[in-house]
Write a structure and sequence with these properties.
It contains ten helices and 17 strands. It is of the alpha/beta class. β11, α5 and β12 form a beta-alpha-beta unit. It is globular and about 60 Å long.
Length: 332
């Protein structure tokens, strides 16, 4: 097999040649290994994080779509193989995790601009590292940069047992907030409880929102982090406190709400998208998350793990599951 500076020149990767269902995720064995440009690092991938946004892009329904054909995914963990001529932060052999790559993660090798990579400390496995990117950066941006949440406030993570939800619970709890979390199964509720949530609620139970209101003595919650707004936004408006903030993290359709609730409560409903982050936002997020990983309290929860050639099953799982429990990981 031909090599380039000590590494092979072709790799296994999942490629999408047309937008569609999970079946368009095809494993190919002769994909050229990408070359690191000036500010990029080439990574030998050990684990890949699967996120809902990956499925929206694959289906062709996302607002910004990659050019076909493409290799899906943004979140990886692995070891640096090569560095570009202008890279300052990393060197060959460093353990890293990535976030916000437009594509290219579902492969044995990937490239990433160094500003979208973080050092991965030895106390975290590569599988855990693959669950850092989109989940923890989205959680940070939602809690601090969009909601402006503060210690002492009550925060509801509406859908707390998935990748982003578990990250939200950990970050909010570590920063002095009272955390309420919901999940759709006993296993999910137990996971959220173990992560430190002050109270948990089954969002499949009739009347669960009344229990949440009761837990706040009917004052409502200061901040709601919403994972499925097309189902829950009206409920959020009913539960939010006067001058509260609702952050829309995920949506899979439209929803009908009573806008009068925004008047009486003077609440804010906002969205979050990592792609809108400024260079300063990225530096802030990366610095904070690297420090948290180094200090040892960041604990990405690994749910199910699939081999690379079962990427289609991973996509079905992340969309169809009724009981999320941590991150879904692919192993190249």
């Amino acid at each position: 097999m031909s090599v380039r500076r000590g590494i092979q020149t072709i790799m296994r990767a999942i490629r999408v040649n047309k937008f569609g269902g999970p079946d368009v995720l095809q494993l190919e064995s002769n994909v050229p290994i990408p070359k690191a440009k000036e500010t990029e690092i080439l990574i030998k991938v050990s684990a890949v994080g699967v996120n809902p946004v990956d499925t929206y892009k694959r289906a062709g329904t996302y607002s910004v779509l990659p050019e076909l054909p493409y290799v899906p995914g943004s979140d990886t963990a692995g070891v640096v193989e090569e560095v570009g001529t202008a890279v300052k932060k990393f060197q060959k052999g460093d353990r890293v995790c990535t976030v916000f790559k437009n594509s290219g993660a579902y492969a044995e090798y990937t490239v990433c601009d160094e500003k979208f990579a973080c050092y991965l400390p030895d106390n975290l496995t590569f599988d855990q590292g693959a669950g850092i990117g989109t989940p923890f950066f989205t959680a940070y941006r939602s809690i601090f940069q969009r909601a402006g949440a503060k210690p002492g406030e009550t925060i509801l993570v509406h859908g707390a047992s998935g990748g982003v939800g578990t990250a939200c619970v950990q970050i909010a709890k570590a920063h002095g907030m009272r955390v309420l979390g919901t999940a759709g199964s006993e296993a999910g509720l137990e996971l959220v409880k173990k992560l430190g949530a002050d109270a948990v609620f089954n969002h499949r139970e009739e009347g669960y929102t009344d229990k949440i209101k009761a837990a706040t003595k009917d004052d409502g919650v200061d901040v709601i982090l919403e994972m499925l707004s097309n189902v829950n936004l009206q409920k959020d408006l009913e539960m939010i406190k006067l001058h509260g903030r609702i952050v829309n993290i995920g949506a899979r359709g439209t929803v009908e709400i009573n806008p009068r609730l925004t008047l009486s409560k003077e609440c804010t409903v906002t969205g979050v998208a990592l792609g809108n982050s400024s260079e300063g936002d990225w530096k802030e997020m990366c610095s904070a998350i690297e420090a948290w990983m180094k200090h040892g309290w960041v604990n990405p929860k690994v749910g199910k793990t699939y081999p690379l050639d079962k990427a289609s099953l991973a996509h079905e799982e992340i969309i169809k599951t009724t009981s999320a429990r941590g991150n879904i990981i692919l192993k190249p």
